[in-house]
Structures are given as structure tokens and as C-alpha cells.
Amino acid sequence: MYILKVFLIVFFLVALGIYLGILTRWILLWKKAKMNLRNGINGKGETLSLVIPFRNESFRLLRLLNQLIEESKNFPDLKIILVNDHSTDSTLEEINEVVKNHANIVLIPTEGPGKKMTVWSGMKLVSSPFVITLDADVILPQHWLESVISISENTNMDLVILPVFAKSDDSFFGNLQETEFSSLTAVTGASAMSGNALMCNGANLFFKRDFYYAHIDKLRLDISSGDDMFLLQAVKEKGQLKYAFSQSLIIEIETEKRWNNFFRQRVRWAGKTVFLRDSYILFFGALLLILQCGWFFFLLFDPAQFLLFFLLKTLWDAALIWNMNLRFSRSTSVNRVVLLALLYPFYVFIITLASVFYKPSWKNRIIKY
User: Fold this and answer.
1) Residue 159: helix, strand or coil by DSSP?
2) If residue 108 lies in a helix (H) or strand (E), which one and from where to where?
3) What single string gives the DSSP state of each residue in 216-239?
4) Which of 94, 104, 185, 326 is deepest in the core (most CB within 10 A)?
5) What span, in angstroms and rounded, lies between the C-alpha atoms of 359 and 357?
């Protein structure tokens, strides 16, 4: 038993050392990161199309459309493609009049259920060289459209990962979600800048149309979700990508107001990872699971080592989030980071187990893995 305990102590501390080494590099990358500068725009939006899949997004989609219409006045050739995934609320009634009055906005039904098939349905109408997918509930900053059109005129990348933040409603639960999402954004940006991206977010994703079609067999259309991660995996294998960020490229999503909706969302995210084959994504996911096991091991069997383990990991996590937020001129709450660090191991195990044994629903529909 003593030999096993010593082995596990060394094993978990080595895992922590590897993790801290990775985060140290990411922290330095955020310290040196430079914002994407918006270049002058020569065209009228013909280089870019927006594909917006939606299901039951009453009010939110109309809010997004109003923002896009206002910003697209100088870009008459920009096409906005709305794809309805069997909405049962008042969304269609709300947007129909808007669509009728704007020739560059197209509304079509999806050819199959699920976000991935809905995006695919919209992609069939895209003729521009570049595409951005947007979630229907996002909130855009000023000059977002100008910034992404500028990218479309000045890049040849197959994928450009853009920043996504959560917008809290100032509740305790909302603030925790905002902090957790900030950590995901920090990892997303830093891993992409390091040359080995771990994730991206389809809520604000820029990619080349031709690459999408050339690698459609890699996108697993048989699985409802994961349009972003399967595309990322394909680009890492066969293409080029970069991370671009600035104040005008940030989009925000609202935090979930109910625990059960948050739980189902995270189980959906975890469920699709079993289909990924990227070695670095799998390695980092395994490393995180090992660290959570180490957290519980030290808590139960070696409280003194637990304090060191917890403090080192939390300090590096906080430094990563703080340096990322600094680049976006956003504040960092140390109290929230510490609280999240205390809750995170329980959260990871619950979500991991649930993703194996539970099929979550999304807007009253069971997700197909």
C-alpha cells in the first residue's frame, strides 16, 4: 500500500508539472499576443456569407438580425442565410417581415435535424469564398461585421478562430458560468496561438467554403452536434488556422439561467468528444481527468500535499485567465476563480459520467451522438 501511495503521489505531481508547463507557455503567449488590426475594406461584402442556424430563438434572433442589418448597410453583397431547425415558437413570425424587406437575407428550412445538418443546409447556398457561422442568440459588438469582412479580404486561412465570451446576468450562477467560459476562451486562444488548437466555438467561427466542402466526409454529419470541433480536427490534419482577436471581434452569449439547461449543454459538449481522434485534444482531456483524480487523492490521503497541489494549479489557472482578460480589457475576479477551482473536480466527474450514461435533450429534442 505504501509503494502504491508513493507511486500515485509521484504520478499526480508529474501530471501537474506537465500541466503547469503547458499553462506557462500559454500565459506567455497571451502576454505577447497582439490584437488583430482592422484593415481597409475594398469590396461590398461579397467575400463573406453568414450562416445562422436556429431553433426556437424568439426575440434573440430578431435582436441579432437588427444588429446585422444596421451594420450591413454598406455591404449590399453580403448574404445572410437563416436556417430554421423545426422551430415551434414564434421565431418565424417575428423574422418573416424582416426577411421580406431585405433581399440579402435568405430564410430556408433545414434538410435534417440538429445543428450540423442545419449548417450544412445553409452552406449549400453559400457562393462566397468565406463563411461565418453564428449562433442565433449571440450579442455582437460595434463594428463586428466590418472586422470579419476585413479578415475575409486579407486572409487565406482555412479556419479563423474568433473569441466568444459569456455574459452574466449578475447572479451567482451566471457569474460562475462567465468565469468558466473565460477559462475556455483563454485555452482556446492560447492553444491556437501555440500551433496546436484544442477547441473552437461554432457560435463565432470563420472558415473557407472550399475547405468545408473538400472535407465534408470528416465532419460526421451523422452526429447532431460538433460542427465546430470536427471542422477544427479536419483543419489541423489538412489545413491552416489562426486565432484572431480584438474588441470588435468578440461576441457574447447569455449564460444559462437554469441549472438543468446548463447541465444538458455541458453533457452535449462532452458527449461529442468521444468521436474526436486528434491526439493532442485527447491527451489534454486525459491530463485534465488525471488532475481531477489527483485532486481527490490528495484531499483524502495527503491534505498537506493537497494544499500545494490546489494552490499551484489554481494560481496558474488564474494567471492564464487574468492575462487573457487583460488583452480584452476585461476584469478578473480571483474569488470566482478560486470558487470555480473548488467546484470544478466535482463538475468534471459528474459531466463525464453523465455523457456516458445519459442522452441529453436540446430544445425538447434528444441529441443523436
Assistant:
1) strand
2) strand 105-109
3) GGGS-TTSSS-HHHHHHHHHHHHS
4) 185
5) 7
Q: What would the pLDDT profile of 105-160 be if each residue is shown by its tens digit?
A: 999 999 988 888 999 999 999 999 999 999 999 999 999 999 999 999 999 999 99
SS3 105: strand
Query: Over the chain (369 residues), what is each successive 10-residue block's mean pLDDT?
Result: 89 97 98 82 91 93 95 94 93 90 94 89 96 96 94 95 95 94 97 97 96 93 84 96 94 92 86 88 95 95 93 97 95 93 92 81 64
> CB–CB of 164/204 below 8 Å?
yes
Query: Pick from 54, 35, 154, 144: which is nearest to 95 by CA?
Result: 54
Nearby residues of 206 by Cβ (< 8 Å), 6 or more positions away: 130, 131, 132, 148, 151, 152, 159, 160, 161, 162, 244
Cβ-contact 186, 318 below 8 angstroms? no
What is the number of other CB atoms lying within 10 angstroms of the CB of residue 225? 20
CATH of domain 48-275: 3.90.550.10
Domain regions of the chain by residue span: 9-32+278-357, 48-275
Residue with cell 494544499: 307
Output the furthest CA–CA distance in the chain (Å, rounded).
Answer: 75
